[in-house]
Fold:
Amino acid sequence: MIRKIFLLTTMVVVPVYASHIPDLTKNLAGNVVSDKDEENLESVKEKSTFTNAVKQVEPPLRRMWSKMYDDGAYEGEFTEKDKREGKGKYVWANGDVYEGDWKNDVREGKGKFVYVNGDVYEGDFKNGVKEGKGKFVWVDGTVYEGDWKNNVMEGKGKYVWINGDVYEGDWKNDTREGKGKFVWADGNVYEGDFKNGGMEGKGKMVYVDGNVYEGDWKYGVREGKGKYILVNGNTYEGDWKNNKMERKYTDKNKKMERKYTDKNKKMKI
Structure:
């Protein structure tokens, strides 16, 4: 009786235990994996497919290394095709140093160029030359900050001399050209046209003593038609030549009108 009961108990217990055994399969390596493992495997496959898709749009592989050239040495990033691209530093045999961005084996992007004489340029480069926005500091302390094109100052920019003079305005081919404002360290201020680096065209000069000239300029001096207004209200208006004039003079009360010639300093009524 006892033996039969034992057998019955065993038969009852075993099926209950067996019902909780997971469905087992084997992978190609012969290892046993469960249903859950198979789900994880499918998830890994999906992630792998996504990762491969991402890799297809990644930029080309870059390597870091150093390389010698005829005129200097480069240390930085290269493409698989052995082109300098990314971040890098180039030291020329003469002592000049560039550090910054490279593209297709030339300087392009943001960078800093330190010349052997101490001058420093920091800003944009394109196709190996200064182009875009940048700041140039000469070793003597002179500073230009503004637009560059094909390695020269061109566009809008500000130039500060070590004596305190400041020019801000248009540039072309390293020269002041167009509209601009020049402030001298002594307080005089000119605003108007520039050509070949000098005041030429229409412009207004406000002198430190309060007097004002407004009119034509040529080769950096007053020439043409112009009006000179004194701080006391009196005005001199007429023709100018080589910074001198023959003009009409009118006092602020408009009581008299005369011609005046600077050359002999004599009044003519």
Q: What stands out?
A: The CA atoms of residues 137 and 143 lie 5 Å apart. The radius of gyration is 41 Å. The longest helix spans residues 35-56. Confidence is low (pLDDT under 50) at residues 1-34, 47-57, 256-269.
